[in-house]
Design goal:
This protein has 336 residues and is α/β, with parallel strands linked by helices. The chain has a domain of 180 residues: D-Maltodextrin-Binding Protein, domain 2 (3-Layer(aba) Sandwich). It has 13 helices and nine strands. Strands 1, 2, 3, 4, 5, 6, 7, 8 and 9 form a nine-stranded mixed sheet that branches. Helix 7 links the parallel strand 5 and strand 6. The termini are far apart. Bound molecules: 3-deoxy-alpha-D-manno-oct-2-ulopyranosonic acid (KDO). 3-deoxy-alpha-D-manno-oct-2-ulopyranosonic acid binds next to loops.
């Protein structure tokens, strides 16, 4: 008997093949350790790029790296809770988010404490971090793998320099400055002399374009990546926070891995952090010229005035009361 193929046969054969392919793919994915990472950063942010291009391939033989960007699956600030509840495996978290759970993490959120990218790495790898890391693991079920460099945060305003020139914190009085939505961030905004407004990162572009805020603070690569330069007119180079993030992973997921897999994940995280750091530093060096070309004023204020006000406000604050004895001196000793 000759087999006659009609359209229905072709369709059902194709469907069967599709199901076979789909189930094989699912089979492969199921065999692999699922590493879903949520970040409020964009796909083109250097931290995301480093994770996709350096971390993912280094663990690909046993793990399926599945990133989600722009706070779409988990809103900014909810990722740690999601990991802790077992709904997510990884995030690019911040000391400010950790300070919500463990107030002593605010020491890493204070203005003018970290001096540069190398200082962040020295602090993260120093034994002074051990009790901080242990607490996050034991009480939140989250392991901090490596430190990522976000960059020097600068004040970025809608007003033109002719309308408002900022030299000292007093010049920011009444300026409605968007800061991310935790106490540690809001305090930093106040310490700068501004009137801080909490807002998720994903809403900032619109808020700047409509004028519902006067400005925001972020490192230059973020100002460019998020296109904030399209809706603002000046950048004041306060460098008030050499900002960091941590690559965080679920402790339960970590404990499921073999020692060899753990070593690969750790090495991959360190390599991604280093790659992102170098790219971000390079961008920071190049972007003043780019932003000026876009018509923005970019200038340094009286840095001593900002540093003095910010440091003295932190030392007098309720945050400083939570900092473990001697740790600030240890951090300072690791710098220049
Ligand atoms: C921001 O909301 O301004 C911030 O820069 C805070 C960082 O901790 C980090 O979460 C970052 O946003 C996002 O990843 C977007 O770049």
């Amino acid at each position: 008997m000759k087999l006659k193929l009609n359209r229905r046969h072709v369709l059902s054969a194709a469907l069967a093949a599709g199901v076979a392919i789909a189930s094989t793919t699912a089979g492969f994915a199921m065999d692999k350790l699922q590493l879903r990472l949520a970040t409020s950063g964009s796909e083109t942010d250097q931290r995301s790029v480093a994770m996709a291009e350096v971390f993912a391939p280094a663990v690909a033989d046993f793990a399926s790296y599945e990133p989600s960007y722009n706070g779409t699956i988990f809103a900014q600030g909810t990722e740690l809770d999601a990991i802790s509840r077992g709904n997510l495996e990884m995030s690019i978290t911040s000391a400010q988010e950790l300070a919500q759970f463990f107030p002593e993490f605010s020491i890493f959120t204070a203005g003018y404490v970290h001096q540069d990218a190398a200082h962040q790495v020295a602090v993260f790898n120093d034994p002074l971090m051990d009790p901080f890391k242990a607490k996050v693991e034991d009480e939140l079920g989250v392991k901090l793998l490596s430190v990522m460099y976000l960059g020097r945060r600068q004040v970025n305003l809608r007003q033109s320099k002719d309308e408002l020139t900022v030299n000292t914190p007093a010049d920011l009085a009444g300026v409605n400055l968007r800061m991310p939505g935790t106490d540690a961030w809001q305090f930093l905004g106040k310490a700068l002399g501004a009137a801080p407004t909490p807002m998720a990162f994903s809403e900032v572009y619109t808020a700047l374009s409509t004028g519902s805020v006067d400005g925001q603070d972020n490192p230059l690569p973020t100002v460019v990546d998020a296109k904030f330069f399209e809706v603002t007119n000046q950048i004041i180079l306060t460098s008030h926070l050499v900002d960091l993030n941590y690559i965080a992973i679920s402790k339960a997921t970590w404990d499921k891995m073999s020692a060899d897999q753990q070593a690969k994940v750790q090495a991959a995280a360190d390599a991604a952090a280093e790659s992102g750091r170098q790219k971000q530093l390079k961008l920071e060096g190049e972007l003043v010229a780019f932003l000026e070309k876009q018509g923005m004023s970019v200038y340094e204020p009286d840095l001593a005035a900002f540093r003095n006000q910010v440091q003295s406000m932190y030392l007098d604050s309720e945050f400083a009361a939570t900092w473990p004895e001697g740790v600030l001196d240890q951090i300072n000793a690791l710098g220049n």
